[in-house]
Amino acid sequence: MGRAVSTVIRVGRLAFPVHRPAVLFCLVTTAALVLVSALTLTLGELGIPLAEIPSALSGGAEGTSAFVLERLRGPRLATAIIAGALLGISGALFQTVTGNPLGSPDVIGLGAGAGAGVAVISLVFPLIPSSIGAVLGAGLATVLVYVCTGRGFRSPARTIIAGIAVAALSYAITQYVVSTHLRDAASQLAAYLVGSLNAVNAQDVVVTGIALGVILPAAIAFSRDVSMLEMGDDTASGVGIDPNRTRTIAVILSVFAAGASVAAAGPVSFVALTAPQIARRVIGTSHVSIVPAALTGALVLAVADLAAQQVPFVEGLPVGVLTLGVGGIYLGYLLVREHSKGRL
Amino acid sequence: MTRGASLARAGILFLAAAGLALATLASLFLGGKVTGPGEVLAVLTGAANPYLEAVLDARIDRTLMGVLCGSALAVSGVIIQGITRNPLGDPGLLGVTVGSAAAVVSVSAVTGAGIGGRSVWVAFAGALVTVVIVYAVGARSASGSVVSLLLTGAVVSAVLTAYIQAMILTNPGIFDSFRFWVIGSLSGRDAEVAAAIAPALIAGMLLALLLAPSLNNLALGEDVATSLGTPVALVRAAGILASALLAAAATAAVGPIAFVGLVVPHLTHSIIGADHRWRVPVAAILGAALLVVADIIGRIAARPEEIMVGIVTALVGAPFLLFAVRKGWAAR
């Protein structure tokens, strides 16, 4: 940061150091997000004509356009953006705590655990809201990994293998519940197993929206403490930060963010892994960047869902299949890179 | 080796075989409907009613499947762990079975054929390609550590699972037949399937037995093995071939099942020691018994529902993997 890429914004007595590439990145991502949103709403047979969008958004739509906006694509787009942002935040926090891009919620089995929680709660105890199941499942998965490594999240190797085990366990539980309770509903099946936005509704938007409204400010407020962890525990203690407490809070926030997202969209893989990495790579910073990671997560999920709605061959597939395939390849690339650096 | 130790091992082999016999018998009696010995005898002598006969027929078939595929997966695990010198090698965790499954699903989507043992060679091609990729990427790491191989397997599994899901969900014709198979299930496979996978299974087993002495040398380290006259590269290649053949045979018949190849080799190691010449046969027997028992548990644990055997093995095997991490087998 010594190359004068930072500007300080002063509002009264408050001063915010602003990292200029990060701001630029956020602006570009936001513009891309607007573009993708417009495409999502307008493309295809049921698309709303571009000219009608401003009036439709201000409540002036009628007939088909209103139905498409309010029932079909509106909630779906909003959920994609919000859930993607939550996953981005969850990944950014978790990767910083583990100090390794591979130590992200997907590899730890946190998403799979949340998915199992949703499956168990929504199919076996339908009276309890599924978001509670998601948070419980994600929390349980995290605790299980933490305990089983024998040394917390400090050993990447142990954390990853324990995560693979917890993911397998969660997946088996989901498979069991789904196979005994859902016999013929293929689309629902996919939603529980890999994550899908095909069946989201306005309620999902509200629930995830509230979660984002709480978690995003908390994560931003907390990001300075978390980024101190990257300097090492001693340095962090030196500036008055309790490393263990900071890690715990970051993990809890991460669990809630992933849980809220999975409750609405199912266990969509690899957004939490890729979004913070893309943001970091492009901006060229070593800091935890919550807002860029959130925006990137939103963009990734919105683009993937646009593909799931409009691109031939993958059209109609659950969005989780796309992120699993593409994100898996990215994870493979990361893996090879970590090898060549000898970090694994 | 002393004569006494050899005798003790033969005794263990005998005990394991007795255990398998017990598991097989239990598999015939237990299930959604518990049958008594009298009824089983009546079926065998042809004096039972057709319903009972059908129940027992189905149980004989799935028990046979459990025996064949359990032993194949377990021996595949022993070989993979031997050639990679990685205590956490398992055809399921390394993505080999998923590779088989992806190949089978692709061919079925094109030809419209259902699942059957005939796809075993397609499954073999898929398994071989996957195991070579995972081995090439995972073993690249300078430290040659356990985790890189496992993580590579997880990555390959993830990508292939996405592919399989995409194929199944976009081809309604194959959705029904593959929906349970991709989880791993012993039900609905008859003796014809067993006959079709037999060549791959037998070839794999023979190769495994042949390799056993070389794997003992390899366990001492590459340099020592070379100095003992073991052609390390050849042994590795043959090991890859054997483990792919065995994993493919099992997957073509019953779907991708994980953890049998992880748990059984360790169990075997703890009761009979590190000698591969004994580990291979004992693992074959224990693997068969384990999969049959897992299937029995799946049949009776949630009556009248059935838990597919792939789910049971994961529910048992994943905690075992966690235990292994806790014990520090993953190093560091």
What does the secondary structure layout of this molecule look like, with pairings?
The complex is a heterodimer of chains A (344) and B (332).
Chain A lengths: L5 E6 L2 E6 H23 L10 H8 L2 H36 L6 H4 L1 H15 L5 H20 L6 H26 L4 H8 L8 H28 L3 H6 L4 H23 L5 H13 L6 H21 L8 H22 L4
Antiparallel strand pairs in A: 1-2
Chain B lengths: L2 H27 L7 H8 L5 H35 L11 H16 L8 H19 L7 H25 L1 H10 L9 H28 L3 H6 L4 H23 L5 H13 L3 H25 L8 H19 L5
Name the overall outline of chain A: globular
How many independent structural domains of chain B?
1
Assembly state of the chains shown: heterodimer
Main pleated-sheet profile of chain A: 2 strands, antiparallel
Number of domains in the coordinates of chain A?
1
Spell the H/E element sequence of chain B.
HHHHHHHHHHHHH
Distance between the termini of chain A: 28 Å
Give an overview of the whole structure.
The complex is a heterodimer of chains A (344) and B (332). Chain A is mostly helical. Chain A has one domain (19-41, 72-340): ABC transporter involved in vitamin B12 uptake, BtuC (Orthogonal Bundle), CATH 1.10.3470.10. Helices cover 74% and strands 3% of the residues of chain A. Chain A has 14 helices and two strands; from the N terminus they run ββαααααααααααααα. Chain A has a two-stranded antiparallel sheet with strand order 1-2. Chain A is globular and about 60 Å long. Chain A starts with 5 loop residues before the first strand and ends with a helix. The mean pLDDT of chain A is 84. With 332 residues, chain B is mainly alpha-helical. Chain B has one domain (3-327): ABC transporter involved in vitamin B12 uptake, BtuC, CATH 1.10.3470.10. In chain B, 77% of the residues lie in helices and 0% in strands. Chain B has helices at residues 3-29, 37-44, 50-84, 96-111, 120-138, 146-170, 172-181, 191-218, 222-227, 232-254, 260-272, 276-300, 309-327.
